[in-house]
Amino acid sequence: MEARGSQIVEDMREAPLLDVLRALQSDAGHLARESLESLSRSKLISLDRIYGIAASYPEFRFDDEEEGRRPPREEAPLPAFATVAEGEVHRRMLAPGPLTSRYGKEATSLGRYRELGGMSAIARIEDGMKPEQVLSEVLLGDLTRRHGTWQRVATYAWDRVIVANNQTGDPLAGQVSALLEQDPYAFAEGIYLAAYATGAREGYLFLGPRYAHLSEPLTAAAADMKLFSKIDFELEVIIGPGILVSSEDSVPLAAMHGERPVPASEGKFSEKVWSKPVLVENAGLFTVLAAVLGTRERVNNRLYQVTGDVREAGVIEAPAETTVSELIGEAGSHGRPQVLVGGLSGTFVSGDGLERPVSDYERSDNPRWRTLHVLAAEDDALEMAAAGAAYNARNLCGYCIPCRIGSVRMAELLAAPGHDLETLAETAAMLEKCGLCNVGKGAGALVRSAIEMRA
Ligand code: SF4
Hints:
Layout: H1 2-11, H2 17-28, H3 33-43, H4 47-55, H5 64-69, H6 80-83, H7 88-91, E1 93-95, H8 110-115, H9 120-126, H10 131-140, H11 147-155, E2 161-166, H12 175-182, H13 184-198, E3 202-207, H14 215-229, E4 234-239, H15 250-256, E5 272-273, E6 276-282, H16 283-295, E7 301-308, E8 314-319, H17 324-330, E9 339-341, E10 347-349, E11 371-374, H18 381-395, H19 401-415, H20 421-434, H21 438-454
Helix pairs in contact: 1-2, 1-3, 2-3, 9-16, 10-13, 12-13, 13-14, 13-16, 18-19, 18-21, 19-20, 19-21, 20-21
């Protein structure tokens, strides 16, 4: 067994660390210590560090002896309000638009995609559209907040990389995954357009483990797109770590560098991966890109998910400026309720806050912030925050001290009888200010805004 592990390590000498770990586990059913020692020697990475990285991925198992040394990790159940979004709700389209025009129409082959109007953006390239024209339509269409990165990557003269992140982390936010499932060629067309615009030749799509079944159709769609577009670009699908903070851009980049999949301080990975300039975008952006360039119209739509006390829960395609009250009205909400915007790291809003665009509450350009849960009359925001905080305390990565301590303290304070609201508010404000990443900051906002609902 060990000889085989060493052979795998030897054969995959040049492969990324994560790929080698997966190959070892797939061969032996777990990560044997001897194999990891070989890996440590081969990659000149300390054994402790390899264990630290592998232990961050729930998918890896170790030798019995090592497994027994893992700290016991009780699974915190998902709060009830988050479980309502699982499964079918992600796929139920309440208000479609240009971005979702093929939703539910079995656009899962290139022929069918063409029949339904796909490939019209790639056709413009065949008609002579230049990369700089594609880039200027992306920038003028205001499709992304990362104008500078697109321009910077496009002007480099050497290898460039595109990373599409479809790890929302929050189970409430499955709307983009549902779109990738329904319209895989639109994503493929979009990322090939981005490759043409920027000159990137390699790209990686990170999927959360919950959506691993999309790997095959998306890989097939990308292969067809390469064949028919003649754009020199290769896309690889990677199953990411599937942790609550996976929506942070730096998490896939850390995984690609063979580091612990945790958020990084600003700037650590922002410009390069494997010394190559990198553009990271949420996967849904590429579908928007295909729709915009294909229709030649301004389509600045996003997918929102509405659950809770509404006539019908599901997904709504609407412009980026749509307000909370417009979205919950579309789903059949009555009156002026309280709404949790942004899921497990979200903000409770009510009153005038409902008239603000959802984008005002987004902490980054990621669908995890575009989930709306409408509270019923009998729901109590603080009780919901307590359930969310208990889940967050177990599932946030624990990389930075304010959140490692603050998220646990908040969960304890909320579980104690008779809440000490003053200490709770101070702890939440500290986390919102000092947490390293948006997900941790949002965990503070969840509790802070629930306290404000009581005021
Ligand atoms: S804020 Fe929380 S989730 Fe973010 S890096 Fe720090 S510990 Fe991890």
